[in-house]
Amino acid sequence: MFGVNNFDMKNIILFLLLILITAGCCFDNGEIIPQNQKDQLIIHDDIINFLDAFDNIQTTNDSILQVKILEDKFLNKASIGQSRMIKARNYSAADYISSIRNNPKFWRSIRTNLENFDKHNDLIKNGIKKLKNIYPSLTTSQIYYTIGAHRSPGTGVDNMVL
After folding, report:
1. Cβ contacts of 16 within 8 Å, gap of 6 or more
2. Contacts of 32 (CB under 8 A, 6+ apart)
3. 109-115: which pairs have CB atoms within 8 A and are 24 or more residues apart?
4. Could you tell me which of 144, 150, 148, 136 has the C-alpha nearest to residue 162?
5. Fewer Cβ close by (within 10 Å): the C or N end of the chain?
6. CA torsion, points 113, 115, 118, 124, in degrees to nearest 10?
7. Which residues sit opposite 32 in a β-bridge?
8. What does DSSP say about strands 160-161 and 156-157: parallel, antiparallel, or unpaired?
9. What's the confidence (pLDDT) of residue 96?
10. Can you state the angle between helices 45-57 and 93-102, rounded to 10 degrees?
11. Which residue positions in the chain have pLDDT lower than 50?
12. Rounded to the nearest 5°, which phi and psi values hold at 153?
């Protein structure tokens, strides 16, 4: 993908995520948020819901049914983090359907990484522990694996990393 091998892409994603965590985890609308979590919370339900919707959307060419599937299996089940991503990027059902229809090879190519969130969770948690050793006052933030429609590599909203 774009001349970047899998190892480089994983490092880039981890690096960007750690930047978002350090930049966004301590602030909520400019105020420091005290958080005392023993373990980093990482929510991945939106990945599971999206892949379920994606698979079901592939079974029909009926655009009205595709939107209904997307809404029932993904959008209506969106976590707080996914809902905030949708709002932050002004995504619509049409954006997702367009992305799924126009980029099926892309979605299939990243599926393995999407489904291996447990492995990525461990890497993220270890990275946060290392940062915590360097910056003891670092507080954690909820991390959501969210699905966009090609307009966001991720973002921070309030005290969430999306």
Report:
1. 153, 154
2. 26, 139
3. 109/1, 111/51, 113/10, 114/47, 114/50, 114/51, 114/145, 115/47, 115/51
4. 144
5. N
6. 30
7. 27
8. antiparallel
9. 95
10. 60
11. 1-4, 22-37
12. -85, 0
Residue labelled with tokens 């029909």: 60
How far, in Å, are 59, 80, 91 from residue 87 at the CA level?
28, 10, 7
Tokens of 143: 């991390």
The two three-digit tokens of residue 127, written as one number: 């990275």
Tokens of 93: 């059902």
Of the candidates 49, 47, 21, which has an alpha carbon nearest to the alpha carbon of residue 35?
21
Query: Tens of pLDDT along 14-43?
Result: 555 555 554 444 433 333 333 444 567 888
Q: Residue 43: beta bridge partners?
A: 144
From 77, 115, 121, 73, select the one nearest 97 (Cα to Cα). Answer: 73
The structure tokens listed for 48 are: 């599971």
d(C-alpha 26, C-alpha 132), whole Å: 12
Beta-strand (E) ranges in 87-130?
none
